[in-house]
Amino acid sequence: xxxxxxxxxxxxxxxxxxxxxxxxxxxxxxxxxxxxxxxxxxxxxxxxxxxxxxxxxxxxxxxxxxxxxxxxxxxxxxxxxxxxxxxxxxxxxxxxxxxxxxxxxxxxxxxxxxxxxxxxxxx
Length: 123
Description:
By secondary structure, this protein is α+β, with helices and mostly antiparallel strands. It contains 3 helices and 4 strands.
């Protein structure tokens, strides 16, 4: 299960925008099932006030997982675009983290297997 906390800095989020962000990020639950525990996801959305080219939203997330936390930051022209970018980046980072952990396990298992085989071959 993914517990999502959304914080708005220097701006107010409408309930529809908050629901949209939660809906987008809830789709990441299937990728987080690998960790077999409840995870917390903290989302901070901030509106840039000194922008000459219009409104720019900066969104930052932090996924608290065992070991290293996954951190992601994007900038977009709208809140919906920022939510889509966050979802895509977090998905990529979660999959990379999972593959790294799996490959580490496989390498360790292979080294252990080689040691056991060599101990059996020695007289």
